Amino acid sequence: MNGHAHMGFPIDEVWIDEDARDEPLTGEILRRLPSCRVRTGQDAIDAYERLILESDPFRHGKRILRLIRHRGAFVKPCPGTKEHVCCGLQILHIGQGCPMDCRYCALQAYFNRPALEVFVNVDEMLDGLRQRLTTDPNRLHRICTGEFTDSLALDPITDLASKLVHFFCQQQNASLEIKTKTDFVEPLLDLDPRGRVVLSFSMNAAEIASNEERGAASLKRRLQAAAQAQKKGYLLGFHFDPIIPFPGWEQGYGRTIDRIFRAVDPQGISWISLGILRFVPELKEIARARFGPLPYFHDGFVRGLDGKQRLPAQRRIEIYQKLGDRIRTHAPETRIYLCMESPYVWKRALDMKIGKDQDLIEYLDQAMRDG
Ligand code: SF4
Q1: Nearest residue to 233 (alpha-carbon basis) of 267, 194, 273
Q2: Which of 57, 194, 237, 343 lies at 20 to 30 Å from 360 by C-alpha?
Q3: Which of these, 87, 75, 88, 68, lies nearest to 19 by C-alpha position?
């Protein structure tokens, strides 16, 4: 056992890229992981070559932290597609990979880089952000960390979220969304987010959370974290994604929705998103190899224009309707949104006229303006 200095996920090794050695964050991380094996230079390269030859590099890679400099843009638009209405979210890349191991996780199919990567050039990250906000000063920038990672999973080691909250609480035209399945909110509770930070939690039916979301905090702990954060002035978001239509899904998801509204004040919820399981075909095989066959990756899914497998629209509409109604019985004004759906589905599922990206962008921006 290592890592008594922090309470996060266990890390066995830290691999440091040559040009990442002198970054202050590298030093901070090493201080928080005093008993880890550290590899640099050729040693790290050799270890990587060995890792990718293992039978499940992904699993072992979840205990290896790679410290690197990010070279490309730190802020990028969320990869929407033209067939779907896009929410205009921008992604702040803080790293990639996740120490949790949800069986349905899409990252399994996307990455041939099995270790957990942390971008340690934080000054450049903040410069990139600053630049993004000043070159486009008239729009509201909704920015989220955690597209290719969980926003807080490595935070006990990196302490990055506090730095970001500190940065965002001073901005006029931007908001930060921190999206997680952990309850690592403690360091954030002493900061004043000044209405600029949404802490959001990925939620699921209890059946899915406890069986499929390996390593994630229990729903109870996620909700406790949400309630604590709300008391300290954070806005909240909840994401039901992926919604998995297992037998009993309606009761399962319904119960989780009820729990949310028992735990927190609906006034402070910026949004609740709904997204039904969709996957690239390879994911089914990759997950099968790692976990055995998963019943929810079945043949009822059809290939969409973007190459992803989805349930037929009629079935998706039914599911969204049920969950949307359940949310609205608790709080009719809750801002619900669908992830990557067409205007037709929006209309049928939620009776909302969201015809183009700009409609959805304004709908969600409003959450931050009201806040
Ligand atoms: S928490 Fe998210 S990123 Fe991490 S394993 Fe689960 S689905 Fe993947």
Answers
A1: 194
A2: 194
A3: 68
Q: Give residue-wise pLDDT tens across range 153-186.
A: 999 999 999 999 999 999 999 999 999 999 999 9
User: Of 371, 366, 354, which is closest to residue 140 (Cα–Cα)?
Assistant: 366
The pLDDT tens digits for 106-159 are 999 876 789 999 999 999 999 999 999 999 888 999 999 978 899 999 999 999
Q: How many residues are there in the chain?
A: 371
Pocket of ligand 1 (CB under 6 A): 98, 100-102, 105, 107, 150, 181, 216
**Would you list the domain boundaries of the chain?**
73-370
Tell me whether the omega of the peptide bond preceding residue 242 falls within 30 degrees of 0, making it cis.
Answer: yes
**How much distance in Å is there from the Cα of 135 to the middle of ligand 1?**
33
Percentage of the chain modeled with pLDDT above 90: 88
State whether CATH 3.40.50.300 applies to domain 73-370: no
Distance between Cα 12 and ligand 1 center (Å): 20
Q: What letter does residue 173 receive in the DSSP assignment? A: S
**How remote is the CA of residue 77 from the centroid of ligand 1, in Å?**
20
Mutate to test the pocket of ligand 1, among 63, 102, 239 (most ligand atoms within 8 A of CB): 102
The beta-strand segments (E) located in 17-148 are 37-40, 64-68, 75-77, 90-92, 95-96, 101-102, 116-119, 141-145
